[in-house]
Prior knowledge:
Number of domains: 1
Bound molecules: tetrahydrodeoxyuridine
Oligomer: single chain
Structural class: alpha+beta
CATH superfamily: Cytidine Deaminase, domain 2
Amino acid sequence: MHELxxxxxxxxxxxxxxxxxxxxxxxxxxKDATKQAYAPYSKFFVGAALLLESGEIxxxxxxxxxxxPSGLCAERVAFFSAGxxxxxxxxxxxxxxxxxxEHRVAEPVIPCGACMQVMxxxxxxxxxxxxxxxxxxxxxxxxxxxxxxxxxxxxxx
Length: 157
Ligand code: THU
């Protein structure tokens, strides 16, 4: 028997001004994208913004449905949209932001497991780490250098 030790490091920025201008822009794009969310059921408005190698920013927001499981998270809306409309272009980073009056969103919100799985497959296929910026309403932002920070082990076929 031996142990596998899995370690993650997250860099925590106390406010947006501590980020590079490019990262501030990406986080702001994610914040703006929350306005496109359709979340009448959860009232949890999520925005995701992807930075492509071309410099383009692709956004997504959560889209809910009265048949609850039919909805989709902001991250997957953005990633699948990039997969379809920008096939083959590398994704350098993703910023995720949340707005909600009903839920506590002061601290950065962590993506759900299904979105991590989807994002990690994009990362594996492109063979380049995707940096993740998680923004909280208190201004704090987590910077993860790759998907492995959040999900060290990935399901794959
Ligand atoms: N949601 C996201 O958009 N991203 C996540 O990572 C977690 C949850 C959405 C799904 C649903 O519309 C609402 O937030 C509440 O779960």
